[in-house]
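User: I'm putting together a small comparison set for a docking exercise, and I want a reference complex before I start. The sequence is below, and the ligand is pyridoxal-5'-phosphate. Could you produce the 3D structure with the ligand included, as structure tokens?
Assistant: Of course. I'll restate your input first, then give the structure tokens for the complex.
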Amino acid sequence: MGTTIKHSWAEPFKIKMVEPVFITTEEHRKKAIEEAGYNTFLLHSDDVYIDLLTDSGTSAMSDRQWAGMMLGDEAYAGSKNFYHLEEAIQNYYGYKHVVPTHQGRGAEHILSQILIKQGDIVPGNMYFTTTKLHQELAGGKFVDIIIDEAHDPDSLHPFKGNVNLEKLESIIKEHGADKIPYISIATTVNMAGGQPISMANMKALRELTNKYGIRIIHDMTRVAENAYMIQQKEEGYKGKSVAEITKELCMLTDGATMSAKKDAMVNIGGFLAINDPDVFDEARNMVVIYEGLHTYGGMAGRDMEALAIGIKESVQDDHIRARVGQVHYLGQKLMDAGVPIVKPVGTHGIFIDAKKFLPHIPQDQFPAQALAAALYIDSGVRAMERGIVSAGRNKETGDNNYPNLELVRLTIPRRVYTQAHMDVVAESVECIYSKRNTIRGLKMVYEPKYLRFFQARFEEI
Ligand SMILES: *Cc1c(COP(=O)(O)O)cnc(C)c1O
């Protein structure tokens, strides 16, 4: 693995450029969150001190990536940066064909429209907001086949992203394989708390799907982080590099959608990768309608270059160890303080269990939403809700979905914050935990039709 680690982990980089951040007064923050309808997505980032809203597009690029930006070939067609990107995807992930898109959901849209027919069933290891919506808009119905442990924030199962294969097989038998265009598999599972799937489970899934002739489509947004967890926890993978494990995971699947804004550390970008030449042909045709020509798909040449470099950096052992190490540092602090969080700690953030944190607030008064607002008021730390608001409504009945997991996500951008920032975050969470009885529930006063968590507005009860 190239390194001998004697002491604790440290970032494998030094800081060359800084961006100042400012802390506001509590009075200012109270007013700001009220104006934002108690939705942290509606805050101005100027009013935020430590921004843990998301790890999407918020990572720090390396000097190599910035140098790559200067090598942008902005030709409308056939940009050399596209070919570098294609080569990086083939080398590091092993997929044959690549269609760039502006970000992950652009790829989800195209792939869903091509593969899903009205009335189809799409089983997956827990839903993701945009992924599921695109599956539904294409006429499909998402069915959760993740193991039960994933819905239990206290289960210490090391691979809570695993598929329950018996559940899947009974769904295949019930509906017939021809009603299932593909199995939707995420590495890692965001909504479960950034939990990995094991290689053994992925191999067993491949065998089962081969038996029925069903594709596996890989949501590979955080595949390198998943590979690192396999290296750390799964029998037989200690001696393999994250790069090797990443490729092995990808090669067990038939194609992928990627939000390059996460693992691959670019501010914008994504792609669809597929091995089937016919699906590739259709995707390449469709991308010109919705994203752009098939050699840029909504990205500038310079962004494709930065992405090609970011892919390589994302699978380096030193990088990923420090990235996940920082997340685990914060998680350990909160666990030591007795704060209820999803265990084991995942790879891209800490997920606070809002049901346990605020047992006096019923789920239809949005405890996670209220907790994220309280944290912001205390310290200017911005988190996000991952609970009943994010889960939306049932497509058929229109009722609220009531997910088991009612979480606040503290998402850590890659290479951006220091350990001292993590200390401040932990202190603030501990502070509001000590006065949790004073936090009140919310009522929703505005609800958008799609992906309501982004723009919904609330008032205190
Ligand atoms: C972010 C994300 C997506 C969607 O990607 P965008 O780039 O935000 O469009 C899909 N799946 C997972 C697991 C994600 O985290």
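The pocket of pyridoxal-5'-phosphate is lined by residues 56, 103-105, 128, 130-131, 186, 190, 219, 221, 259, 261-262, 270 (CB under 6 Å). The mean pLDDT is 96.
User: Thanks, that's exactly what I needed.
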